[in-house]
Automatic annotation (TrEMBL):
Protein's organism: Devosia rhodophyticola
Name of the protein described by the UniProt record: Sigma-70 family RNA polymerase sigma factor
PANTHER family per the UniProt record, alphabetical: RNA POLYMERASE ECF-TYPE SIGMA FACTO, RNA POLYMERASE SIGMA FACTOR RFAY-RELATED
Residue ranges of every copy of the RNA polymerase sigma factor 70 region 4 type domain listed in the record: 101-153
Superkingdom assignment: Bacteria
Length: 169
């Protein structure tokens, strides 16, 4: 049990990073990770140690996220005044900051299945095989989604070259 909890603890920063990238909201991301950890610990008996705990946790987190999206579509979402973003009156002082913000907006505009795949590979550094298992799809489908996501990002960037996405650890 101790090894199981140690693996969960080590995965928390990556889970938070992925949840924040999916939701683009710190509070929602933290709630999502908390729900994921609660579910993993309470359903510890369902984990079949065929490998590390980390991919299992990402599968739980992704399923919880998808469930929340379905619920949101049925019930709608309340938007607080703090969540209403306005453009700054002055341009950002750094050109790189603007490009990063544009890339983040472009990633957020991707269809959910493309965004999930891209973030697992580019942000979390999962192998294609691991990401496909987390998403519950064949590896060929994953590759197709990644290709479409990258093509969309190149088009939104107005660039025919590959977008510069590095694995962040």
């Amino acid at each position: 049990m101790s090894d199981f909890l140690d693996q969960i603890e080590q995965a928390v920063p990556a889970l938070r990073r992925y949840a924040r990238a999916l939701t683009r909201n710190l509070d929602l991301a933290d709630d999502l990770v908390q729900d994921c950890l609660e579910r993993a610990i309470s359903r510890r008996s369902l984990f079949r140690p065929r490998g590390p705990v980390r991919p299992w946790l990402f599968t739980i987190l992704l399923n919880l996220f998808r469930n929340s999206l379905r619920s949101e579509r049925r019930h709608g979402t309340a938007v607080g005044l703090d969540d209403l973003a306005t453009e700054p009156a002055t341009p950002a002082p750094q050109h790189g900051h603007m490009e990063l913000a544009e890339l983040a907006r472009a990633i957020q505009s991707l269809p959910p299945e493309q965004k999930e795949a891209l973030l697992l590979i580019a942000l979390e550094g999962f192998s294609y095989n691991e990401a496909a298992k987390i998403l519950g799809i064949p590896q060929g489908t994953l590759m197709s989604r990644l290709g479409r996501a990258r093509t969309t990002l190149r088009a939104s960037n107005g660039n025919s070259s590959e977008p510069r996405l590095r694995t962040v650890k």
